[in-house]
Amino acid sequence: MTGRGLRIAMVGSRGIPACWTGFETFAEELSVRLVELGHDVTVYARKGYPEEQPGNEFKGVKIVFTPYVKHRELERLSHEVTSIADSLRRPFDLYYVMGTPSAPLYAPLRWLARRRLVVINTDGLEWRRPKWRDRGKGYMKLAEWCAARISAHELVSDSRAIRRYYLEKYGRDSMFLTNGAYILNDLPEGALDRWGVEAGSYYLIACRIEPDNNIHMIIKEFIESGSDKELVIAGGMNYKTPFWSHVQSLAEGHRVRFLGPVYGPMLVEKLHLGCYGYLHGHEMGGTNPSLLKAMGCANCALVLGTEFNTEVLGGNGTRSPRITTGTSGDWPPGTACADRRGQAGLGSRRSGTRPAMRTRAWGRAARARSRPVPEPSAARKPNPANRIIPRARRRQPGKAMARDSMDRRPDATRRRASPCATSWWRRTLARTSTR
Questions:
Q1: Do 66 and 44 touch, CB atoms closer than 8 A?
Q2: Confidence of residue 171 (pLDDT cuts 50, 70, 90)
């Protein structure tokens, strides 16, 4: 391995170019830059999502399509089973796994392919997502345990709060490596024509239509605010669900538009550059790429005040009360950003969230993930000293680890928006309706 780059298999996304979620954006941006740094990268993809590339290669990254079961709950797991089977006949040095849901599948690789390292990007708290019922939630907790205990040589967390969660709950440290975004300023003339919107005339939401992104709450509060702006939602679902029907019924007859998934070179960034404000209701953790894009475009961001979102903002933007029961007296009233936005006009957004982007460039994110590799003999050990991710600190013997505070509340309180949280969105949006 000495003297050459790593042979890396990236698994867990739908493929590249980016075609659906933040995972695909991450896979595209990271894989291309790792190739530029001298590594040999293969991304496992699913047919029907990314546009097929000539020669199954994208900017030097190899793309391998493997079969999967077209079923909401089984799609990812079935795809990774076939991807792992295919990978065993290829000389990979390292698996970079995006998310924990498939972690149990990688435990056997510790014995079947001992020269290969498994690095798992922990993402958010998957088991807390409302879409999972009892069995699904139980499996996601098992998968998280497997990632922390038996499947991964190393863990990577894109959020300090998630890193703290794994350290306190499992005694397992992970390397904090942030995601990235582009810093953009100018909106080209006519860039918004394809969507029929004008700069400064709309609020933007950019995400998948999932319950834990709280789109239903934002739509209701936007309507009740009486804002004279339009609410534009860039995102979709790959399977029709009752929640998807619910949000569509909420929006019917109001100034709310669903654009569907918006992917392509700098397409959603154009929507960010033209929006009056960006609304972010993500709840379940990790560093979300759409919030980073909003920050890179210096949007005035109105954000659900979770621990994860607050960390990413770095003291910028405007936060709502948290989505929990109880009071929100520790949270700001949430009107300062909207007031500045209305008084100074559209141009004032250039200072909205930009300061926190200094350490979140894609090039930095890729270089942080590129490290010297161990010799094959060293890679047989569970914890080699030199690898793509430096050695994580392990739990010290005898040191008690408290369970994380995020794991203490019953599910009902996690999912229910308090009156303080919902009224914050309505009040803040209403302040801009006459600006």
A1: yes
A2: very high
